[in-house]
Task: structure prediction
Amino acid sequence: MGNDFVITILVRLLLAHGFMTMSWSVICSSATNLTDQEALLAFKSQITFKSDDPLVSNWTTEASFCSWVGVSCSSHRQRVTALNLSFMGFQGTISPYIGNLSFLTVLDLSNNSIHGQLPETVGHLRRLRVINLRSNNLEEKIPSSLSQCRRLQWLLLRSNRFQGNIPKEIAHLSHLEELDLSENYLTGTIPSTIFNMSTLKYIDLVVNNLSGGIPTTICHKLPDLEVLCLSVNPLGGPFPASLCNCTSIRRISFNRNGFIGSIPADIGCLSKLEGLRLAMNRLTGTIPLSLGNLSRLEILDFMYNYLDGGIPQQVAQLSRMRRLRIAYNNLSGGIPEAIFNLTSAYAISFMGNRLSGSIPELTSLGLPKLNELNLRDNRLNGKIPNSISNASRLTLLELSNNLLNGPVPMSLGSLRFLRTLNLQRNQLSNDPSERELHFLSSLTGCRDLINLIIGKNPINGVLPKSIGNLSSSLELFSADASQIKGSLPITIGNLSNLLALELAGNDLIGTLPSSLGSLSRLQRLRLFINKIEGPIPDELCNLRYLGELLLHENKLSGPIPTCIGNLSTMQVISLSSNALKSIPPGMWNLNNLWFLNLSLNSITGYLPPQIENLKMAETFDLSKNQLSGSIPGQISNLKMLRRSTCLTMHSKVVFLMVSVSWLA
Result:
């Protein structure tokens, strides 16, 4: 009986102890849950929402905070584990009470308009695994207290206004996998300890102001690194001698870093590499032959360096290549024919080198996905191959500033997706058996054509009437200095979306067709140095967006149209060296006009006081006409005039400015 009594007492004590323990647990749980609620309400108090934002009506004490928009809680403790309010469009600052959400693992406030500092109290969130604050307006320094979030795996602060140095304490985050501090205002050097964080898979520091180079042993302790982006930072210093220890690397972006030296000869060791961007550095030497081993490479960009030698044949082995750009270097030699068998390529650019030889023929299977082919500014010669039309999805064909010769191939008209064709500054010609430029007729098949540039070639032919059947999307037709003869076809008025018509320095005759007035969007009309005669048609006054009218050195006669004063957007008028008779009064109302040259005509009359309305005039020349009367005193109000020339009106001389060399 004594033993039973003792047992009963023990049971009662245990039950009592259990009850008290349970009660204390409930009390503590209630208190800490309240802490989470208070922290969330403090966060809300510093945010400005739209009136219809769900947080206004949803984040209230009338409902459990675990049901609030963007809040996730643990099922057992009912503690806040995730706060995801991305793309909510709110403004404000982050409350320091955010640090009281001690069970938080995910903080995602990306793509809002949050400003101010990132509170140091974020370092109290020891369970935090993800911080995503991309695309906000956060500023000042990145808090070093982040290093206390020892479980952090993703630190994403892209597109903010953070300043100062990258905290070296970040290296204490032993579980960090993704570090994105790009598009901020960070300065100083990249802490070398970052490159010792063996867990890192992703480093993006692009578009900052970081300097001081990078360690030559950058890859020695980053075996899992997949992405390394440092572009648009003035880092300077030598390019790493080897990157072979980054065995998992998929993407390297070192554009505009000021690196010197050569591309490592063993670059081909990076067997998983998909993107290699090294543009706008000061790299020298040749393109490594080992590039041919990068069987997964899809993007290669070496633009704007000082690389020399030839294009290695091995580049043609990169069967997955989508974008190949080695423009503006010092490459020489020919283009390997096999390059045009890269069936996955959609952009190839070798512009701005010293490449010679002919453009390789395309097989029927070659370049089926190619959108852009840019070979401008080289020394390529020979004919444009008819087979170029096999690249049937081309939208850009840029062959200007070469030594190409022969007729422009009719097959270009098969490129039905073509948007830009630039053949200027070559030695291209018309079919010698044809008087008209029939290749222009073939281009009517390019229904998406926007820019057609063929100037400074000895094309030597007549514009066909079919020019009016060119793409209704055409915005630029440029054929300056191309030995074009005959008159402007009336059908040119069909090109209703044309913004610029440039046919200067040719042998055009006849009159200006009144159909030019149908080019309702035209902004620039350049027909100077031709043999066009007759009056300037009144229909040009329909061109209400016209900003440049350049008709000098023709045989135009009669009065300048009275209605020209209605063209309020006009900035440049050059009608010199014609036989024009009079200036309409409305011309003095063109208050956006900064260049006016009417010299070497037969203009009579006098200068009215309204000349002072040309407030923007910088260049003004009425010399060598037959003007009479006195010089109006208001001419001194033209404060923008710069250089001087002589305006002669009988025996009176006034100094005004002129500069026409830019029109040549």
In short: The helical segments are 2-45, 54-58, 438-442. DSSP finds three helices and 47 strands in the chain. The longest strand covers residues 80-84.
